[in-house]
Amino acid sequence: MKTDEVIDNIIEAFVRIDEKEVPDLVSKAIAEGIDPLLIVNQGITVGLREVGNLFANEEIFLPELVLAGQIATEVNETLKSHFSGDIVIEKKGLVIICTVSGDVHDIGKNLVGLLLSASGYEVVDLGRSIPTDTILKKVKELSPQIVGLSALLTITMPGQKEVIQTLKEAGVRDKVKILVGGAPVTREWANEIGADGYADDASSAVLEADQVLKVDLESAISG
What is the rounded CA–CA span in Å between residue 214 and residue 44? Predict the structure, then answer.
């Protein structure tokens, strides 16, 4: 079977969110000698993006999106053993995510973290109701490319603004991209507080992260 056909089959299995067929097809691709990097980059990543588009268009629902993210994560972990010693999957970037102080909701944040991780990002989840000072400390400690701030309540939205202002006052704002999201959050709010990006759901958060970092989705994983 031609490489392109194998990769297309993997993508199609992802679109069907077939948790048995995806790993089976990946195993067959490895057995046929297809480059694991190609499988990850052109098969799994593209397939997950297609599922994200289906979710954004309300053609599938949250449970299916979560399952697709889990499939991608598990298959990527399995593929790691097939890389030669001098080849590794290069992460797109380090992302710190959390819900801001006073907000204990974390289902949306957790899903964002899952999809970012499955899409090639290294994710550090600080948790929920995280004080601004803690976020600043972690930014200084870890030097992430992106900080994702979730707020699920209107009364906690100002916490996103506070984090941005605090990072600015500490002299580190220009060193990191800020993405904001959450049920009451809008693109207008993101612009008002000086965020770099906004996402209204988990799948668009991945696309927004790629956009703010100007990641080429076709070559995001390299050796």
Answer: 20
How do beta strands 197-199 and 146-150 pair?
unpaired
Question: Is the CB of residue 116 less than 8 Å from the CB of residue 96?
Answer: no
pLDDT at 222: 47
Indicate the range of 14-23, 137-146, 157-166, 208-217 predicted with least confidence.
208-217
Q: How does pLDDT run across 161-216, given as a tens digit for each residue?
A: 999 999 999 999 999 999 999 989 999 999 999 999 999 888 789 889 999 998 44
**What does pTM read for this prediction?**
0.73
Give the DSSP letter string of 115-175. Answer: HHHHTT-EEEEEEEEE-HHHHHHHHHHH--SEEEEE--SGGGTHHHHHHHHHHHHTT-GGG
Predicted confidence (pLDDT) per residue in 103-125, tens digit: 998 878 988 988 888 888 999 99
CA atoms within 13 A on the CB side of 58: 0
Return the sign of the alpha-carbon dihedral for residues 84, 18, 11, 112.
negative
How would you class 99 by CB atoms within 10 Å of its CB: exposed for 0-12, middle for 13-18, buried for 19 or more?
buried
67 closest CA partner among 127, 18, 12: 18
Cα dihedral across residues 90, 148, 114, 127: positive or negative: positive
Walk me through the domains of the chain, giving residue ranges and CATH numbers.
3-82 (1.10.1240.10), 94-212 (3.40.50.280)
d(C-alpha 209, C-alpha 24), whole Å: 30
